Give the backbone structure.
Amino acid sequence: MLFGMTGGWHIAQVNVALPCEPLDSPALAGFVANLEPVNALADAAPGFVWRLEDEGGDATSIRPFDDERMIINMSVWESLDALWAFVYDGGHLEVMRRRREWMRHLAEAYMGLWWLPAGELPTVEQAKERLAHLREHGPTPRAFTFKRRFAPPGVGAGDPVVTERDPCPAG
């Protein structure tokens, strides 16, 4: 466990994607069909705290970027270990492996992590700022990735903890 007990901090994550087609197209039917089951997995996962939702129970209608096609997903977890377990050790991974079928490749970082005080929830604007920071500066304690993690404020020395196993799924 790298950051299982984080002394009053939770981990926030944002990921964005640019669908290859409109969400109501047949080409994205598999993606859309997996939204509810994956969200249910998250909601029931150990360490889950919160996820961004619209009236439909997911976040697909929330379009905070200049490019209206861009979709956003955000969640908060009790620990980095809990988020890692959800993303890479469960049913979510099978869906994530199909990302290239449904989403365009983005040259810039599309996923970012940051610590926030337990009990706080991130805003979409905060997530956009953290992702922009990651894109501009690379991983720092302000915004980082699974591959280059930072401890919560006051828990570590602020030096990155580089992960030995590659979090990127094959395929």
Observations:
- The chain has five helices and six strands.
- The longest strand covers residues 9-17.
- Residues 162-171 have pLDDT under 50 and may be disordered.
